[in-house]
Amino acid sequence: MKLGKLFWPMVGAVAIVFSVWILYHDLKGMSFHEFRDSLLAIPLSGWLLAALATIVAYAALAAYDHLALEHLGHRISLWFITVASFTAYALAHNIGASVFSGAVVRYRAYTSKGLSASEVGVLVAFCSFTFALGTAVLMGLVLIVEPEIIERVSKFLPVEAAFSTGVLILALVSLYLIGSLVGFRPIRTRWLKLEYPRPSVAFRQLVIAPVELLAAAAIIYFVLPEANNPGYLVVLGIFLASFSAALLSHAPGGIGVLELIFIAGLPEFDPVDVLAALAVFRMFYLIIPFVLGLGAVLAFEHARYTQMKREESNGTKG
Question: Most exposed: 41, 64, 241, 256, by fewest CB within 10 Å?
Answer without folding.
Answer: 41
